[in-house]
C-alpha cells in the first residue's frame, strides 16, 4: 500500500535550472495537491487539481507550473529555479468532492536552490 | 474559510492526556473542523474532523463547543511518538474542491 509517492526525495539545483517534481497516488483519489513548507512555517498551497483534467492556483503559484497527467499523477515544474524556492515540497491526494475523510500526504521532496 | 488561532507550543507529560485548543470564532454553519499533525520532516497526517458533535476515533477525541467557536483535540494517553506540530483547520466540506489551508499549528512536546 504505497499511498502517495514523490520523487525525488532530495534535489539540489543551481539558480536558473529547471526540474519537475513527480507525484503519483494509487488510491484512485480524484483530487491532488502540491504544498511547500519553509522552515518553521506551515504548509502553503501552490496548485491543486480537483479532478483529472483540471488544475487551479493556490496561495503561492508564482514560479511554478503543474500537469495532471492522468488520474494517478500530478507533477510540479520549476521552469527557472530561484533560491526563494528552496523548500520542502509535499504532494497530497484526497477522494475529492462530496466525500472527504482526509488528505494522504507523500513523504516530501527536499529542494535546495543555490 | 474561517481562520483559526492556536497556541504556538505546549508541553505534556508522557501518559497524561494532551488537550490542544483551537479558536475559530468566525466559523460558518457549514464549516467543519479538521485536525492534522506533522511529525518532524514527515508529511502531515489526518487525525479527525467534526461539524458540531463530539467525535472520537482510535487516535483522538474532538470536542467542539456548543457555539462552535472553539474546539479541543484530546490525545488521551500521550506518548513520546505524539510529539509533533498539530494543525487545526476549518473549511467547507465538499464543493468544487477540498483544498485545505494550513496555519502554523501547535508544537506539542511530550516529555518523558
Structural features, described:
The model of chain A has no long low-confidence stretch (mean pLDDT 91). In chain A, the strands form two sheets. In chain A, strands 2, 4, 5, 6, 9, 10 and 11 form a seven-stranded mixed beta sheet that branches. In chain A, strands 1-3-8-7 form a four-stranded antiparallel beta sheet, with no helix packed on it. Chain A has strands spanning 4-7, 10-13, 19-25, 31-37, 43-49, 56-57, 64-68, 74-78, 87-94, 104-105, 109-113. The termini of chain A are far apart. Chain A is mainly beta and 114 residues long. In chain A, β4 (31-37) and β5 (43-49) form a beta hairpin. Chain A has no helices and eleven strands. Chain B is mainly beta and 112 residues long. Helices cover 0% and strands 46% of the residues of chain B. Chain B has a five-stranded mixed beta sheet with strand order 1-9-8-3-4, with no helix packed on it. Chain B has a four-stranded antiparallel beta sheet with strand order 2-7-6-5, with no helix packed on it. In chain B, β5 (55-56) and β6 form a beta hairpin. Chain B is globular and about 40 Å long. The termini of chain B are far apart. The interface between A and B is medium-sized, with 31 and 23 residues.
Strand order of the largest sheet of chain B: 1-9-8-3-4
- What's the alpha carbon Rg of chain A, rounded to whole Å? 13 Å
C-alpha-based Rg of chain B, rounded: 13 Å
Q: Count helical runs of chain A.
A: 0
Quick summary:
With 114 residues, chain A is an all-beta fold.
Features:
heterodimer, A: mainly beta, seven-stranded mixed sheet, globular, B: mainly beta
Write the layout of secondary structure elements.
The complex is a heterodimer of chains A (about 110) and B (about 110).
Chain A: E1 4-7, E2 10-13, E3 19-25, E4 31-37, E5 43-49, E6 56-57, E7 64-68, E8 74-78, E9 87-94, E10 104-105, E11 109-113
Chain B: E1 9-13, E2 18-23, E3 31-38, E4 45-50, E5 55-56, E6 61-64, E7 70-75, E8 84-92, E9 106-111
Parallel strand pairs in B: 1-9
Antiparallel strand pairs in B: 2-7, 3-4, 3-8, 5-6, 6-7, 8-9
